[in-house]
């Protein structure tokens, strides 16, 4: 029998409600998540008791209903779960932080119940005081002969329990919304919260006359039950405006930790930052966060999808991850699953894998740079693409170019281009020697090249325009110069005078007659540091360093001979300036007044 009672909540501080409101929960909107989750717990407990034969009544409709009364300024969350007796109200509501879910799990843990109950902390109910000035509970236990009770508290430490009338078992929680929280009385506001936190809760939730959740998302099912269409439809449910994913991984493990989920590989399109925060973390189908950096390795943050695990420790508000051994194990497991999936795709359908490479290459390279364990596996299926659009694994490419691209010290040189159109003349010179050139124009490629050069023995990576070819792949084959030492000195002086810029260091060299007359290069080390600085690679100071270019004048080119034979100093200087500007033009360094002067000079030469 329910008797009227007044009393004081059993807590250790008079200021528990201000603490809850201001500090315990980081976002006020999660009050609805907590109350609906509690309603789910109560319903699942009833289902479990019925399955064990401890509840013999009719279960009936178990929908959880969320409703708003704008006139009364109330929000009500109603369930038809196990309800509470007066003694249970005193025990679970009045004694803050004593969790009913925890006791239920302890009682039924040998029967597998611990995997089904959401609540852990006993504080979820009190999140209601973040938005409510008064809370009422109307509840009736499932137990035979139980009487309905009403509990009320205005946010102070005083409560009141009185008898009430309630026909059905279950609990109605009525929040009398405070003035500073009346935004939550708007339908679209509550709909948004339900969509965010309760979209996949395992019991149907009704709001505004319709069910708003999917109680059986695909990660709760076995892969054998699902078709490709199911995975694609679920992806659209998560990301309505996204392109279809490339492929996916279904996670399903119950030892040494419990983890389910589906991770999708999106089309990255060389975008490293835009795609982040797309993995959603759930605990027993309750949305927790999309900040999963502790659970998922950094490079896997580029993936999309869902991870659900009751074994990831959360703080009392279920809002923040707490790092521990399980988190590290889960992190390692996910890395392995992703690496194995990529390996399987490569082995089973290499042609299909190559077609996807431009979308997943960024992701794989990021993983190789940042995760050693992933690197070890990915080495076998990381691809490079040459300028003829042929794909190789790193080992295949090394074997392919080694016979022709080994230098005098036995190092194999990988030539690459970052801007194929701009570096076309350098690429064509390499083609004449039958040298291979790789396309390395991705967002992470400067970092990837540095990483691979440290990892691969006897392999050097050099950009095709970083120097003259005979220096890029130095085979110790000395070419004879057609110029005397005196003529070389004269040529150097002519070009120094024509250039008149200390940023350019001139050297006259014996090169092939079909090489360019003048080649301008930025030293490989400095160029790499500048590339990494542009990517934000911890080399910011290099981006501000003045450029220092090398100018290689091909003493064996016919144009140099023509310069020496010119009749006047002015003609010699003009020809030297023209040859230098051509080299600048090929490196996209000729702009402004210099470009205008070059065009005028070219017209004068053609018209002469």
TrEMBL record:
CDD domains noted in UniProt: HATPase_Hsp90-like (cd16927)
Organism this protein belongs to: Imperialibacter roseus
Family, similarity comment: Belongs to the heat shock protein 90 family.
Gene this chain is encoded by: htpG
UniProt keyword terms in alphabetical order: ATP-binding, Chaperone, Nucleotide-binding
Matches recorded under InterPro entries: HATPase_C_sf (IPR036890), Heat_shock_protein_90_CS (IPR019805), HSP90_C (IPR037196), Hsp90_fam (IPR001404), Hsp90_N (IPR020575), Ribosomal_Su5_D2-typ_SF (IPR020568)
Protein name listed in UniProt: Molecular chaperone HtpG
Database matches in Pfam families: HATPase_c_3, HSP90
Keyword Lyase belongs to the record: no
